[in-house]
Amino acid sequence: MSKFNAGRFFLGLHAWGVFAFIYAPILILIVFSFNQERINAVWTGFTLDWYRRLLTDADLLDSVYNSLVVGLTSTAIATILGTMAALAMHRYVFRGKKLFDAILYLPIVIPEIVMAVSLLTFYVFIQLTLGLVSVIIAHITFNIAFVFVIVQARLAGMGSDLENAAADLGATSWQTFRFVTLPVIAPGVISGALLAFTISWDDFMIAFFTAGVGGTTLPMRVYSMIKFGVTPEINAISTITILFTMLLILLAVRLEGIFKTAKTIGT
Amino acid sequence: MKSLQKYITLGPPAIWLGIFFVAPLLIIFVYSFFERGIYGDIVYTFSLDNYLRAIDPLYAKTLWRSTWISVVSTLICLVLGYPLAWYIARQSAKMKKLLLVLLIVPFWTNFLVRTYAWIFILRTEGLLNNTLLSLGLISSPLEILFTQTAVIIGLVYTYLPFMVLPIYVSIEKLDRALFDACRDLGATSWQSFKSIMLPLTKPGIISGCILVFVPCLGAYITPDLLGGAKSLMVGNLIQVQFLAARDWPFGAALSFIVMAIVLLLLFAYARWGTNNFDKAAEAK
Known about the structure:
The complex is a heterodimer.
Chain A: H1 6-32, H2 49-56, H3 58-91, H4 97-109, H5 112-125, H6 132-158, H7 161-168, H8 173-202, H9 205-210, H10 218-228, H11 232-254, H12 257-263
Helix pairs in contact in A: 1-11, 2-11, 3-6, 3-8, 3-10, 4-6, 6-8, 7-8, 8-11, 11-12
Chain B: H1 2-31, E1 35-36, E2 42-43, H2 49-54, H3 57-89, H4 93-108, H5 111-122, H6 127-134, H7 148-173, H8 176-184, H9 189-200, H10 202-217, H11 221-226, H12 234-243, H13 248-272, H14 277-283
Antiparallel strand pairs in B: 1-2
Helix pairs in contact in B: 3-7, 3-10, 4-7, 5-7, 7-10, 8-9, 10-13, 12-13
């Protein structure tokens, strides 16, 4: 095939064009976070000033702290509950299993705004004061679904032969879980937890509706900065947050998680 | 003993989702049949007014616009995504994996920040205008930000992976021999594409279209940040009812209309696409 193939050439050109479209905005954001010029999008010289300023922005640091608290707490609880849900679906037969299965996926597929307003209405209904706790509860709720999906994929890959063999050899069901099931699903659980933390860290919509006063998370803070006007500080905080989440995601990819599941989409 | 373990495993997640997911949805469903009092409180009388109001031209316009923006975004994703999926499917196994990861990773990074990147690029004194002006390609800045075009760019940018992945999978499953046979029998590339590729990858196309359309329809941040007053979508309308107008019953009715459309489409997807919700979920 030494002949020039026009179709193939344009297909490749298109593909790399689309990848450029996907990555250019992110790269531009990163590059301009080091730009001296404040107002215009013109490169005038390298600086780390905007990063330095972030460190003195007390509101921003507060919101980072809040995001960490929300992210870590909701991830810990959602990982446990999501894994339990996956185990229950894998192991047991019970009434309403199909319905429970549907409910486990729903938080992922229904529009975020619907989930946000329904939680807000619910909190007001039960008279829970909005703050960090209400955000944490909301994040646990949608993260259960994400952890469930990942761990379930892992369990499905394992099948039940190993567990049955352990049981036949006299292991109690706790021993089977501790020494057979858990080691097998552990990478799934960890990558589920990483994804849950990423989603929590990035969530704006749900927090925006359920945080109230004093529960401002980092995305909420970034949102109000954006609404106030474009500044290089936003580029700087964006760069940090993008690199941070990319790191977490690549870690999750390495641990199998998303790549495997993405590959099976639509099959 | 066995059943005790079962309830200990199943109970906590089931109870949690029952309280914090199912109950809130039921509450707004019930609220959607109530009315708003004078002070933004809720009057507990049954009425269908909220649903009737949603089809009032004033609001129907927004519902229609949301649908239109979502359809256009979906079609652009299809046009951009199909050839990309094809390209990826033709690479070596190692390259495939790399390209898929490259495609997915940005999707997981902060949505707000990626939308902000477009403000930075598209605004009047933004990068695009500065570049075009200094190259002398335009004499006055393009006004793209705060228009429907900007919203569509933002939505396509965000949801493109949802189109590529299912199409990629359906192309992967194709028997290449069919395509080659078609060419050997003298069909042009276009003919073999039209009569072989297109019909056989239809499930992927349909899945991709639904997976892109659904989140576009419920979009809030993209129209909020990139759109103007004339490109508000139903997500913005719902937000206004809850946080500004304090007309919760109407906001609840709008939420249910969006959710009904979304669930119907996903149900169709579960039947049409070769698989159920979980693949959509896994992609996300």
